[in-house]
């Protein structure tokens, strides 16, 4: 497979972005521009209709990285296979109370990390043997995957954990050979740069502060409650609390993002520098794709690389 990844490509010009209807005033991040352009081209190759500008004051403009609703929902254009689309349906039926699955983003936003989570892990959710084969390469050779869920929390607002509404985009539940329970909680990012700060004037939940003192002794809460690390902190605390509560014997929090998303990589590095010892693992989408490709030659694997990384067969 020959690949041309966005990280190796030149930055798109304003003229190129405008030609594909993806010029967004104020969006200056090089990876963000490349990713938006990549999604527009993917839509164009499939001759899918273009969607409207999401803002209410869009004035009839269109955006190349969007699909029109309700057609996108009815045809499930945003998903790579019918199996993945079925997992989306399942997740919506089984979603936990308070789960933030935004259907506008899910069905209509090609750039959103929410459909990426389903496209990257939906086939694994439907086939636990495949998930096990992948996780034995990524995590431990003796694991057996028993469940893959989306937008999962062990208990939103539950003080046994963080007391917040934080959840993992993808949650992989597994067993080790000795029968102990383990999990991988995954935050999926695509174009996001994690620069959005906490709500102005807000403070971290008291339970988060308490838990930080227990599991991240010496960490500076004020430094953690800032962009670009605060979201990572809450998710990492959630993972740690699931182990300290003895619900699981083993657990890890992982961030999955394309290698070209350097702001996301910098955020993970910044977070790990604030805690001791470093814990959060950044897995490049390219690395994950290579692991999956080593255990299956299913068409969806190539389709995932083509859409999100610009990897083309040939």
Automatic annotation (TrEMBL):
Species in which this protein is naturally found: Geodermatophilus pulveris
Top-rank taxon: Bacteria
Limits of the PD-(D/E)XK nuclease-like domain: 30-309
Name assigned to this protein: PD-(D/E)XK nuclease-like domain-containing protein
InterPro entries for this protein: PDDEXK_13 (IPR048822)
């Amino acid at each position: 497979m020959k690949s041309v990844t966005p990280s190796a490509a030149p930055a798109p010009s304003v003229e190129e972005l405008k030609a594909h209807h993806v010029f967004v005033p104020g969006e200056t991040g090089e990876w963000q521009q490349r990713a938006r352009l990549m999604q527009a081209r993917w839509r164009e190759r499939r001759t899918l209709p273009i969607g409207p500008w999401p803002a209410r004051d869009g004035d009839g403009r269109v955006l190349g990285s969007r699909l029109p609703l309700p057609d996108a929902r009815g045809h499930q254009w945003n998903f790579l296979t019918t199996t993945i689309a079925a997992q989306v349906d399942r997740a919506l039926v089984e979603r936990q109370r308070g789960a933030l699955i935004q259907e506008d983003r899910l069905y209509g936003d090609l750039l959103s990390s929410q459909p990426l989570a389903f496209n990257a892990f939906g086939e694994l959710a439907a086939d636990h043997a495949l998930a096990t084969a992948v996780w034995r390469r990524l995590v431990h050779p003796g694991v057996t995957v028993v469940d893959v869920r989306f937008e999962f929390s062990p208990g939103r607002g539950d003080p046994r954990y963080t007391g917040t509404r934080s959840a993992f985009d993808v949650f992989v539940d597994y067993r080790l050979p000795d029968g102990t329970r383990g999990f991988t909680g995954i935050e999926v990012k695509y174009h996001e740069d994690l620069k959005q700060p906490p709500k102005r004037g807000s403070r971290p939940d008291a339970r988060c502060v308490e838990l930080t003192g227990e599991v991240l002794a010496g960490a500076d809460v004020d430094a953690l409650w800032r962009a670009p690390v605060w979201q990572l902190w809450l998710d990492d605390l959630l993972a740690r609390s699931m182990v300290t509560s003895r619900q699981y014997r083993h657990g890890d929090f992982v961030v999955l993002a394309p290698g070209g998303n350097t702001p996301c990589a910098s955020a993970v590095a910044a977070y790990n520098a604030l805690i001791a010892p470093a814990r959060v693992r950044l897995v490049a989408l390219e690395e994950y794709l290579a692991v999956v490709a080593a255990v299956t030659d299913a068409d969806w694997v190539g389709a995932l690389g083509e859409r999100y990384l610009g990897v083309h067969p040939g």
